[in-house]
Amino acid sequence: MTGIDIALPTDPDDAPLSEALRARFAAIVGTANALTEAADLAAYLEEPRGLFPGRAAMVLRPKTVEEVSAILRLADETKTPIVPQGGNTGLTGGQSPRSPGQIVLSLSRLDRIRAVDPVGRTITVDAGVVLQRVQEAADEAGLLFPLSLGSEGSCEIGGNLASNAGGTGVLAYGNSRELCLGIEAVLAGGEIFHGLRRLKKDNRGYDIRDLLVGSEGTLGVITGAVLRLFPKPAGREVAFVGLASPEAALKLLRIAERHAGGGLTGFEFLPRLGLDFVLRHIEGARDPMAQAHPWYVLVEVSSSRSAEDARETMEALLAEGFEAGIVADAAIAASLAQGDAFWHMRESMSWAQKPEGGSIKHDVSVPVARVPEFLEKAGAAVTAAIPGARICAFGHLGDGNVHYNISQPVGADTAGFLSRWREINGLVHGLVAEMDGSFSAEHGIGLLKREELARTKPALEMHLMRSIKRIFDRNNILNPGKVVQI
Amino acid sequence: MTGIDIALPTDPDDAPLSEALRARFAAIVGTANALTEAADLAAYLEEPRGLFPGRAAMVLRPKTVEEVSAILRLADETKTPIVPQGGNTGLTGGQSPRSPGQIVLSLSRLDRIRAVDPVGRTITVDAGVVLQRVQEAADEAGLLFPLSLGSEGSCEIGGNLASNAGGTGVLAYGNSRELCLGIEAVLAGGEIFHGLRRLKKDNRGYDIRDLLVGSEGTLGVITGAVLRLFPKPAGREVAFVGLASPEAALKLLRIAERHAGGGLTGFEFLPRLGLDFVLRHIEGARDPMAQAHPWYVLVEVSSSRSAEDARETMEALLAEGFEAGIVADAAIAASLAQGDAFWHMRESMSWAQKPEGGSIKHDVSVPVARVPEFLEKAGAAVTAAIPGARICAFGHLGDGNVHYNISQPVGADTAGFLSRWREINGLVHGLVAEMDGSFSAEHGIGLLKREELARTKPALEMHLMRSIKRIFDRNNILNPGKVVQI
């Protein structure tokens, strides 16, 4: 994209790889899986936002953990930078190679579902299994794997864990980290961390698993994982609710929690502007209600007992919301298909923004109770800075996680608007910091937010992070320049 | 206790503290909170199992985080070993001072509940708040803090987090680690780690919080925490179920999960022998059923909707269990008081074993599906080694966590029986290892299991643990000799 000023770090290039070294790496995986042609590389170099033009010497596609180990051993020995990559869906450039001296290590061919344990409710998978396949394998075993993201059809579970992905299931089931019981990873020197434990309780020493999870490939390359599965709900109800304000949405959240308990499996919010975008640009989208409302909430209730039970719970919580004057209008999905259609509208939000021109994006979280205050203050600051800016703030209200996206004013110059990305980030993230929030709720740091992390995280924590990085990767070959610089 | 051969490490004594240094430490907290008299020290030196006779130069009782910081700064400067201590209820000696050169740092006077956020459902507490007070404060706010342990009336939340305590609530709500959103801790040099975040999603760099949680005071001293609260169930039903075997219990677990989903808030098992001990030694305990059964399960179902809903779910799952021939008999508690009485029987198991003589104890976990196999193999091995040994294996079936306790044969010599502690540990832990289990499910490593950890954990992980310990505590002043030696 032209004109985006996101102040991407311009790290010096690594030395290009020699032909001889390329050949040694290629020999590990076989030439068919060592890609060097520009046409073959393209898919690994481009990323969803177009912010990080990728450059790399080659792409390696190992099939086994042992091949990954051999690659990292050679890389460590020769100080060759390795960029691990799963489905290449990350939004902060963590998976993007940055120089002709770097090698992309694709995990996509590690794609076996190793085992399903229906009694212990676990699934053991290779890192390269696409998230949707994990969901399907769980479903076939009569169970649920609740991690759910817009990119689930192409993102891979290793990348989900490496970035501690969030999504819409966090409300009831937790982040990727909480869904993971065990990890297998290859460390920088090629050593294999054998941590594929299926235990719900294991207090044998420091929690190295959770250090690897969320480290974005900078401490080790996740090659396999044991994931938690859950009983599949017997019933599921989805409602689209119109209300006057974020405050009303928050009140409804508390009511819904009281009624549904752990069965509240979705609570997403979006503004009217977001619904307008969806209705305008997403095929088949229909306004579920006759009248417009300033805000909408998508509520999902699951029941372990029955569809009727889910229905009753949904009706009871909406009735209380109506009586309290919180809910202006509500449409309960009449069928599973309509429920999916409601979800599809929410999940199409990012896509629906694209035809509206440039969008300055944020992935922030604040304490749940402060979401309305954040929206009000951020709205005032942004529209003061850019009159006419169209704020499309949506996301996971129950997690305090707002995708605070700002579409350009109608008719404005896209490049000119996007050139203010950094300035607007500063405004929004400043407010988030004042509210003890996070400028990266679920997307991670990657390259995009590395400088901001270094600037804003307490010096003590940056020191600990750098020290930990040095323990795991003394030669700085694992995804160098991402998350933290040493 | 006489005769116990648990091969406690005999580390060399630290140099005794000079008078001058004692005075400098005392000046930080004031002489009233710097205990040096034997009578004052006693309560800090003795621990529940009587395995770790404590020795210490003094006990410091700071009131503020700043005082903790000043203590650690001075300790680091003077290389004085510090043993952090909460409610002194730990079972592996992690909180026990080991030489006249060590200082006990009691967190008990850091006892403020700092804040409750009913909308974001969090509570922020000092480390020294007794667990039961956290539960009560949550209850007063109409919410639930689900961490629940036998020692909840005296253990402190800082210690719970430092040891990643488990307990009976793990099934539905997770270990202490999963219940914790943010941590405040003082590191070895006195620096304060300001991590009291109230965010459900925060992906800003490596997960240092979870490294501190479960590090048993060896990486930092936890001084405060933000904990997750949950909606308080509207209804709760407890049943005591008699059945033929652990296999039957496991089948009932799956049925119960299917019916209750996240509302299955308790699933504990015990053998007839355990119930016999309870009936014999615990005042007021009554057999809930007319006939004896080989095994029992305590099932708890919670409902967010109503007492009737919980009742219906319980009845439905038991009915299915009866029809399938899994449940032999069941008693649903007729009142909350009776439900509490059922729980009390389960929670009295450890106490009820005491009058039966010596007990060789284990805190193990295996994959849930393998619990019956473990019980069978371990039973055969133990009774072959010690004919007449009375195996009282009970615990958290849904977590695969078995407290595999063995009471001495009737009439046997206690000292002679206990002298085989180490040998029997070897048998049981050997089986656990074969089943990819853990020899410390929820009690931690402390001193008791340090050597076994060093012997059995992969060298790579021990190397990482030692390297991490050195980063956080270069002078080895924080609980030295616990968990891992450097």
From TrEMBL, chains A, B:
InterPro entries registered for this protein in UniProt: FAD-bd_oxidored_4_C, FAD-bd_PCMH, FAD-bd_PCMH-like_sf, FAD-bd_PCMH_sub1, FAD-bd_PCMH_sub2, FAD-linked_Oxase-like_C, FAD-oxidored/transferase_4, Oxid_FAD_bind_N
Native organism: Jiella sonneratiae
Protein family (similarity comment): Belongs to the FAD-binding oxidoreductase/transferase type 4 family.
Name under which the protein is recorded: FAD-binding oxidoreductase
Domain FAD-binding PCMH-type residues, every copy: 52-232
Gene3D superfamilies registered for this protein in UniProt: 3.30.465.10, 3.30.70.2190, 3.30.70.2740, Uridine Diphospho-n-acetylenolpyruvylglucosamine Reductase, domain 2, Vanillyl-alcohol Oxidase, Chain A, domain 4
KW Flavoprotein (keyword) present: yes
Sorted UniProt keywords: FAD, Flavoprotein
Lineage top rank: taxon: Bacteria
